[in-house]
From TrEMBL:
GO CC list: mitochondrial matrix
Electron transfer flavoprotein alpha/beta-subunit N-terminal domain: residues covered: 75-262
SMART domains for this protein: ETF
Organism: Ustilaginoidea virens
The name this protein goes by in its record: Probable electron transfer flavoprotein subunit alpha
Any Gene Ontology biological process: fatty acid beta-oxidation using acyl-CoA dehydrogenase
Record bears the keyword Mitochondrion: yes
Keywords: Electron transport, FAD, Flavoprotein, Mitochondrion, Transport
Length: 393
């Protein structure tokens, strides 16, 4: 394995494990190297080791900001709600917050959120839940949430802010990080200690260990990497938080306003949290065939429906069903890939699934390299046969 370590101060020593070579970089090169993309890191690695590959690289990156006086650890877990109900992914964020150590507080804002706050308060290890009950925050607009959350962090003197790497978290936390003058660490999959985090990069083909020396660490977590906390024996105190934005201020000052939403109702499991997922790709050839082949199998299995980016771009499925690097990241017990070739971008969103089953007419399709079970054949024949067998049982 090739291991590249980037220290917090130049010069930097790069060690290529197994070859006994060391490279000491100049301060000028180090400054350029530390801000380079992963692609440039790989290019450099290949110059000194022709056998280096993206999948063999592990990067250790340290920020260079001074830490200053140490503080007691305290983490604010940002909780997401929808229509007054706690979103399941928030429980994953609480689990990650508990791994940091120190005190754990939850933060939730919206309207009629008392039930959601009480659910979070029942999680063992949560010391306090801060709620802001105001309809101005109900729809989760990040431009409105960010100032409130940033002020809450400052007032509470928190060392860490954690949220799920969801659409809500990805919109909100970068703004909060900017207001707090911190460098965000995104989509982490492991926590080594209170300042060291692990995250996938390069479409999941390399793993970076990131050490942050910011006074306030702003983090989004990959939900599938942390088990959901269970609301059971906890008894956290629920308190009212800051509420510095009135409805009038929100409507007049914000550049973003909520207009409306049109949600597609479905009785199927939610894609992000489903235990079983059936995904279709461009091999389905049309939206009609996608619905005809994929939906009956998903219903027979009690599974959620997913799709590759190629299928979404072709209009076979809605964008909300996209699985992959630019879609949802899932890790169900069973993932069935039907008519999906297995592009690297798609694999980045499902390769952590417990069991991967693939059906494709191309025996050389990349999807078979990661599949636990594979069936080479015409999906228009094989999938209906499989559906009938599942129904008969």
């Amino acid at each position: 394995m090739t291991r590249i370590s980037i220290g917090s101060r130049p010069p930097v020593r790069i060690h290529l494990q197994g070859e006994g070579r060391h490279y000491l970089l100049s301060k000028r090169f180090c400054r350029q190297f530390c801000i380079s993309s992963v692609v440039n890191m790989l290019v450099f690695a290949k110059r000194v080791s022709p056998h280096a590959t993206a999948s063999s690289l592990r990067f250790r990156i340290s920020t260079s900001r001074p830490l200053g006086r140490s503080r007691a650890l305290s983490t604010l877990a940002v909780l997401e709600q929808r229509d007054g109900e706690l979103v399941q992914g928030s429980l994953n964020a609480i689990t990650a917050a508990k791994k940091v150590g120190g005190t754990v507080h939850g933060f939730i804002a919206g309207v009629n959120i008392s039930a959601a706050a009480q659910q979070a308060a029942k999680v063992s290890g949560v010391d306090q839940v801060i709620q802001v009950d105001n309809k101005a925050y109900d729809k989760g607009l990040p431009e409105i949430h960010a100032p409130l959350l940033a002020e809450t962090v400052k007032k509470g003197n928190y060392t860490h802010v954690i949220a799920g790497h969801t659409a809500f978290g990805k919109n909100l936390l970068p703004r909060v990080a900017a207001l707090l003058d911190s460098q965000q660490v995104s989509d982490i999959i492991a926590i080594e200690d209170d300042k060291t985090f692990v995250r996938p990069i390069y479409a999941g083909n390399a793993i970076a260990t990131v050490e942050s020396s910011d006074a306030i660490k702003v983090i989004t977590i990959r939900g599938t990497a942390f088990a959901a906390a269970t609301p059971e024996s906890g008894s956290a105190v629920i308190v009212d938080g800051l509420d510095g934005v009135s409805d009038l201020d929100t409507k007049s000052d914000s550049l973003t306003q909520w207009v409306s939403e049109d949600l597609a109702k479905s009785d199927r499991p939610d894609l992000a949290t489903a235990r079983k997922v059936v995904s279709g790709g461009r091999g389905l050839k049309s939206k009609e065939d996608f619905d005809k082949v994929i939906l009956p199998l998903a219903d027979a299995l009690g599974a959620a429906v997913g799709a590759s980016r190629a299928a979404v771009d072709s209009g076979y499925a809605d964008n909300s069903l996209q699985v992959g690097q630019t879609g949802k990241v899932v890790a169900p017990q069973l993932y069935m890939a039907v008519g999906i070739s297995g592009a690297i971008q798609h694999l980045a969103g499902m390769k952590d699934s417990k069991v991967i089953a693939a059906i494709n007419k191309d025996a050389d399709a990349p999807i078979f390299q990661v599949a636990d079970v594979g069936l080479v054949g015409d999906l228009f024949t094989k999938v209906p046969e499989l559906t009938e067998k599942v129904k008969s049982k």
